[in-house]
Amino acid sequence: MNAVVRTTCPYCGVGCGVNVHTDIDPNRIQVSGDQQHPANFGRLCVKGSALADTIGSKQRLLHPHIGEQRVSWDQALDETATRLQNVIREYGPDAVAFYVSGQLLTEDYYVANKLMKGFIGSANIDTNSRLCMSTAVAAHKRVFGSDTVPGCYEDLELADLLVITGSNMAWTHPVVYQRIAAAKAERPSMKIVVIDPRRTATAELADLHLQITPGSDGYLFDGLLAWLVMHLAIDTDFILKHTDDFVATARSSRQRSGDLLTVAERCGLDEQTLRTFYHWFADTERTVTVFSQGINQSASGVDKAGAILHCHLATGRIGKPGATPFSITGQPNAMGGREVGGLANQLAAHMDIDNAEHRDLVRRFWQAPAMPTRPGLKAVNLFDAIADGKVKFVWIMATNPVVSMPDADKVRAALAQCETVVVSDCVADTDTLRLAHIRLPAAGWGEKDGTVTNSERRISRQRAFLPLPGESLPDWKIITDLAHRLGYAEAFAYTCPADIFREHAELSAFDNNGSRDFDLSGLTSLSNTDYDSLVPVQWPIREHSPDGTSRFFGNGHFFTSNRRARFIDGAPQPAAQQCDANFPLMLNSGRIRDQWHTMTRTARSARLLQHISEPFIELHDKDMSVLGLNHGDLVQVLSRQGSCIVRAQEQSGQTPGTAFMPIHWNDVFASRARVDSLIAPICDPVSGQPAFKQTPVSIDKVALRWHAILISREALPLPDNRYWCRRPADNWEVVSLAGDLTVSAAMLKKLWQDQVTDWAELEDSYGHTVRLVGYRHAMPVCWFALQPEPPRIDESWLLEALDRNDLSALQLARGAPSSGADCSALVCSCHQVREAKIFSAIADGCDSVERIGACTRAGTNCGSCIPDLRRLLTTNTVPEALC
Ligand SMILES: Nc1nc2c(c(=O)[nH]1)N[C@H]1C(S)=C(S)[C@@H](COP(=O)(O)OP(=O)(O)OC[C@H]3O[C@@H](n4cnc5c(=O)[nH]c(N)nc54)[C@H](O)[C@@H]3O)O[C@H]1N2
Ligand SMILES: Nc1nc2c(c(=O)[nH]1)N[C@H]1C(S)=C(S)[C@@H](COP(=O)(O)OP(=O)(O)OC[C@H]3O[C@@H](n4cnc5c(=O)[nH]c(N)nc54)[C@H](O)[C@@H]3O)O[C@H]1N2
Ligand code: SF4
Ligand SMILES: [Mo]
């Protein structure tokens, strides 16, 4: 194996090239950014930089299981095939379903879709992209006639005005954000507008932050179209030559938008701010509008995305350098999933189930025995059908719906009573795996080969550099082996991912002749060696453009039947749910910088859990005081759907009346923090994407008698509690706990008697605090502190001291050194720099991010914390830092 393997990061849709060095330290791989990869040119964010922490066989699903029984692959796949066939025989193919993911590689995804749609003969394969990109897909198809992202990353750097709406890209697409920050630093005249009801890290770079009323983007962009028309800031030539239905749409927009003040009021903005934004947009030829989940995850998201596309069409700013709308994709292979037709209403290679010609074309190409004639069930309807007993067999691959679907408790109940749930995953324990009848061990990042396509349509190779752990297999192989058992050996005779990729490319070229955007005709005859050395390339890749294509639509040719783009008239809607006296706060949900989704991989890195280590709800200071809350208090969050217990955090970036929770925590890592148990399954009627961003909730402080921290070598049983949250910390596990029933040292010693042989104990005379250090063979194996207020410890000091075992139990029990402890928030995960140190650097005269970096090293590696550093530079109050 080569000492350096060039591969692609498995996290976000930026799709950064990663160099894996296997030769520096034989016990540990090292990663660095690939200087030659056109997505990142050598940069990596903090998640990418921590990839080495997340690989290996620890906590992995290593063998197939039926129930609790470990079985062979033959047994597991025979059982899966038998159960699948029995359901089909008795109830027909629509009683079975696959639920897949934008984290599958294109080759895995292609065979899953082919098996379901061409051979099982149902369209019941949907994907977590339904929760993520389906709105952008639907909007693109309605307006452009195809699901095409017209621009590329370079456009973000070339723009004179960059509008970022519904995206916290400083945290979610950090390397793209860094590219933008670098472009702005070089060309300060470049303007950035951030549209988000919260003030996020992304807004730190903004010249203008529009802190709009949640869900009001439709009014904002519909109003913008009307304003552009009124101020003659449109490209009439482009409109006339290349679009349909402009006049009717523009007229309706004008009629319903009213004057500027009306739009401003609907969006919760002042008129002057809105006017500035509209002026900038009207006056700037090179304008790019980036949109993400603040737009997509809405009950009227397709209209909102459409309204954005309209403004670009009306100004002819599409597919030109520095001028384009840009839907940025979330998952590493969200785009690849769209290419292979992973959504229940699509066919492979950007074709549609509803289109008889497309069905016929794909049927002929696959020589498929059974093609569905109508779309399958979209994710929310699919889980409803499981709950109703209509779908009796479901195979879930590379996604964790018990955590990530709206109305997540209902999803859990649906799976709990489903006849057969098969789950392929690479880790051993997830909320969804807990409900599987058959568990199939999948190979993970670094262990499998294939391709992914990033946000700018760039196909990159993921390459293996590790052996397959245990009996795990790549997903394409598992699916293919099942297809063989179902009698389709000939159509699934693949021996390697390159075989699948060639077929995928051939289908894209089949009877295409320029009629479909997705075209890999230039890659149909790749040899296995060519595939191995494939360099990152943007589709379409045609014979006359073998090096790929950066932009679409610059020539005004769209993929509708008459080649003209369409304006689609749609009246903007407010958020689907409104607050009332019972549920007075509007809850928003999304991502944090250092975690990936349901934490199955990123929570294996202690470093990534230091930035934010517990589930929380962010509230404005005013709401905190109305509710009588202090920063860090545990609260119950209640919605019409369910409840959670998390820590309240004061965050001035929230507007009063709104709240924010992260999507990451789940039952593996916390007692009750799955945000999706709060979220109603209200979806966009066109795309079926759920409205995750606006949920009315109420908040109550949880009355608790004690708070505790448990640090142990191995997971220990917990005393009776109301709240727990656990995380790994190198050789230890750290658990935060709180409860209201009395817990005594005696009870704990009994509870942990199997793991601990000797105790050092400090208990105060009233029994309100407990401090225990547990030893086994004279080595500390657990440390416990309980008191009425949350204990504050200097964690790095304590973990090191426990590891070294050179302090007395009395010294250890304090949880911090006698002086100089730093318990302030960790800002730079890479160099472990805390807030207190940064504040002291600022006090010593460091007045820029660069100076702070030179003085403390913060922000000098991956740069993910630079927005935080900017925020600290403008914060006047220095929070309490020492414990
Ligand atoms: N660190 C990290 N990065 C990730 C991921 C991860 O799990 N962790 N996941 C990846 C995936 S799959 C995805 S889809 C992307 C998502 O990337 P983003 O879309 O950037 O992420 P979110 O945090 O879901 O939401 C984006 C922003 O929308 C805002 N918002 C909420 N309501 C509204 C509204 O009404 N209007 C507007 N304009 N904004 C609103 C939220 O306040 C939030 O700041 O991230 C990808 N990158
Ligand atoms: N409230 C709220 N809910 C949301 C969102 C939101 O913003 N708010 N965002 C939504 C969005 S955009 C998304 S994308 C989803 C994400 O939600 P999910 O897809 O459910 O989250 P992940 O944790 O990424 O799940 C991926 C699973 O696949 C496993 N895995 C990793 N690699 C492989 C592999 O190669 N093969 C196999 N078989 N398994 C693998 C992982 O261990 C993990 O269990 O959440 C959605 N839910
Ligand atoms: S920005 Fe970070 S998470 Fe996204 S692909 Fe690049 S390194 Fe991976
Ligand atoms: Mo996503």
Question: What is shown here, in short?
Answer:
31% of the residues lie in helices and 19% in strands.
Verbal overview:
This protein has 883 residues and is of the alpha/beta class. The protein has six domains: 56-133 and 331-444, Rossmann fold; 134-327, Dimethylsulfoxide Reductase, domain 2 (3-Layer(aba) Sandwich), CATH 3.40.228; 493-548, no CATH class; 585-701, Barwin-like endoglucanases; 706-814, no CATH class; 826-874, BFD-like [2Fe-2S]-binding domain (Arc Repressor Mutant, subunit A, Orthogonal Bundle), CATH 1.10.10. Helix content is 31%, strand content 19%. The protein contains 30 helices and 36 strands. The strands form nine sheets. A seven-stranded mixed β-sheet has the order 5-4-18-17-16-6-7, sandwiched between helices. It has a six-stranded mixed beta barrel with strand order 23-27-24-26-25-28. Strands 30-31-29-34-33-32 form a six-stranded antiparallel β-sheet. A hairpin with a 3-residue loop joins strand 14 and strand 15. It is globular, with a radius of gyration of 27 Å. It starts with a strand and ends in a 9-residue tail after the last helix. The structure holds ligand MGD (2 copies), iron/sulfur cluster and molybdenum atom. Residues 9, 11-12, 14-16, 40, 44-45, 47-48, 173-175 line the site of iron/sulfur cluster.
